[in-house]
Specification:
It is a single chain. By secondary structure, the chain is α/β, with parallel strands linked by helices. The strands form 4 sheets. Strands 5-6-4-7-8-3-9 form a 7-stranded parallel beta sheet, sandwiched between helices. Helix 3 runs parallel beside helix 4 and helix 15 packs across helix 16. The chain is globular.
Length: 521
């Protein structure tokens, strides 16, 4: 077979690559590309020609459209990319072939028209195909895979096996609970049982529920692996697996745990796999290529990572007056429920304490707070009892509240992807929201990376002098507990309570004698 040759002076031209693939679509071929490890870009000349490979017909196609600026080269994708122009602008759930019980749950949730990610994904996932989807936080990713799971399990004519048939892996406990709550709403009429499995709660209670064989398991990796090793969770009958917030799973160090679980599931061609993330990276797509069956990439809005309904503004402020500006913003901005982010646990505790000192109903939540207390705080925040919630990025993934008016980045995140997840807590389900960022001299150096990721400049506003409100909170003086020395009696034994004098060496213990008896001696 004659292959086209590449001249050194020509570089990697589109015509050469197209002719090579066209000639070798039925034969094995090795293509060596020089890649910049820092950016992941191919070190060759690019052209305004986008490529896609049809894996079903093993034919290469070339289009004359200009490729969109995306962190992924079309030639590096694990599967074909779904173009947005091929999908109708508005798609109703009634237009899809869904079971009647699922349609009832969708009506109970108040959904009528599909969001962009649902419009792009559902026609693919309902056919049992794998996808790797990128969409902004709060655009309906959870409903996408839940509707798919319910529909696929209800229409599955195979004999119902013992044990769960669908598995959803989430990075945090709060997110797992949120998925279960939405699953119980959408699947109220399906008769399918959903179980949340995560750490920090009664181990034996979850074990008993898991042994009863729920249909769908929503779990965090750590507790699920524990049950897997105990042979309580049996993954042999899993037919659908969902990896939600894949980028956060990577950031939290769950990559090895995730691979451990995926390798013990049925083979990738015997199950359906779905991966959802607010941002996609090469590491995430490598996982999709390794453990998924020709996953199709879906980009709801590749040119804009953040939601358009979110108004993003930024204030440059110095550290000494940063809290004073925050008080002014809270006084002047109209709000009903606010979420404030800090980079550290100490910062969350300090900020919540100072806001309370100024008469504001603020509560702090971090990853070190006990699980039961965290759940109680989240329930109070959703119910409107807590108006201001101060949190770290670890706890942010479980905060799924529809009516958060403003998200304030008190500290610019050190990881630019955290910015996307933070502001995604507002402007959810098509509603408008506002994201305010305070850029101080400590964290302003991370602003460039954030703007590079979201591919836009954040609008800068300058606060007037009357925006800086005085701080009325008292300085916090941490209480120092005095170390108590153990009180010893007898042969080195510690005795609690009333202190008794130690007896001298060589003396013998004598029984007490009455005073009148000693007087006659």
């Amino acid at each position: 077979m004659d292959l086209p040759t590449l001249k050194p002076s020509e570089g990697l031209q589109p015509a050469f690559l197209f002719n090579t693939l066209q000639s070798c679509h039925k034969s094995p071929i090795f293509v060596f590309l020089a890649v910049d490890l820092g950016t992941g870009k191919c070190l060759a000349n690019h052209s305004n020609v986008a490529y896609s490979l049809d894996h079903e017909t093993n034919q290469s196609k070339m289009s004359g459209q200009t490729p969109q600026e995306d962190p992924f080269d079309p030639m590096m994708s694990p599967g074909p990319t779904i173009p947005a122009e091929t999908i109708p602008e508005s798609l109703r759930f009634t237009d899809l072939d869904l079971p009647e019980s699922v349609i009832k749950g969708i009506r109970d949730a108040g959904f009528e028209v599909c969001t962009p990610i649902q419009t792009l994904s559902l026609p693919i996932t309902l056919q049992g195909k794998d996808i790797a989807a990128q969409a902004q936080t709060g655009t309906g990713k959870t409903a996408t895979f839940l509707i798919t799971i319910f529909s696929r399990l209800l229409t599955d004519r195979r004999r119902k096996p013992a044990g769960p048939r669908a598995l959803v892996i989430a990075p945090t406990r709060e997110l797992a609970l949120q998925i279960c709550e939405e699953a119980k709403l959408l699947g109220a009429h399906t008769g399918l049982e959903v179980l949340a499995v995560f750490g920090g709660v009664d181990y034996q209670k979850q074990e008993k529920a898991l042994r009863q064989g729920p249909d769908i398991v929503v779990a965090t990796p750590g507790r699920l692996i524990d049950y897997l090793k105990q042979k309580v969770f049996r993954p042999g009958n899993i037919r659908i697996v969902v990896i939600d917030e894949a980028d956060r799973l990577f950031d939290m160090g769950f990559l090895k745990d995730l691979r451990y679980l995926l390798r013990r599931l049925p083979a990738y061609n015997k199950r359906q796999s779905m991966l959802f993330s607010a941002t996609l990276s090469y590491a995430v797509m490598e996982l999709a290529y390794e453990h998924m069956n020709n996953a199709q990439e879906v980009f709801a809005s590749p040119q804009k990572i953040t939601v358009e309904e979110i108004d993003q503004v930024l204030f440059h402020v110095g550290n000494p007056v940063k809290f004073n500006l925050l008080l002014g913003i809270l006084k002047r901005e109209p709000w009903h429920r606010i979420l404030i982010f800090c980079n550290t646990r100490t910062g969350v505790e300090m900020l919540a304490r100072r806001l309370q000192g100024n008469g504001l109903p603020a509560v702090g939540i971090t990853g070190t707070v006990h699980q039961k207390k965290r759940l109680k705080i989240m329930q109070r925040f959703k119910a409107g009892e807590v108006k201001i919630l101060v949190a770290t990025d670890v706890a942010s993934r479980g905060i799924h509240v529809e009516d958060i008016d403003i998200v304030i980045n008190y500290d610019i995140p050190q990881d630019p992807e955290d910015y996307v997840h933070r502001i995604g807590r507002t402007g959810r389900a098509g509603k408008t929201g506002r994201a305010i960022t305070l850029a101080c001299e400590t964290y302003v150096y991370h602003l460039e990376a954030v703007e590079s990721l979201i591919r836009e400049k954040i609008k800068v506003l300058w606060a007037e002098e009357d925006w800086y409100e005085p701080d009325r909170s008292r300085p916090h003086k941490p209480r120092r507990r005095k170390a108590r020395r153990p009180r010893r009696t007898g042969a080195g034994r510690v005795k609690k309570g009333k202190r008794t004098p130690l007896k001298a060496k060589g003396t013998q213990r004598t029984s007490p004698t009455p005073h009148h008896a000693s007087a006659h001696r």
